[in-house]
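Regression test case RT-17, inverse folding.

Input:
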């Protein structure tokens, strides 16, 4: 199987404890906010790319229908 699915709950808890030790409790909200903003921007960008592809496909379809 492999990948992120193979980590499991115990592995996830260990990773969270290590992150807490490395960054400390005061930095975690800042890191969480930065990660959240990054994911939001990524989602916005991918949605924009998908919308652009849909627009291009619609234009090509109209162009072929007009011919």
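Golden output:
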């Amino acid at each position: 199987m492999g990948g992120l699915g193979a980590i499991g709950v115990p592995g996830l808890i260990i990773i969270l404890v290590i992150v807490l030790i490395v960054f400390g409790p005061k930095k975690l909200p800042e890191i969480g906010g930065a990660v959240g903003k990054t994911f939001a921007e990524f989602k916005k960008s991918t949605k924009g790319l998908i919308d652009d592809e849909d627009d291009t496909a619609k234009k090509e379809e109209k162009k072929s229908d007009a011919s």
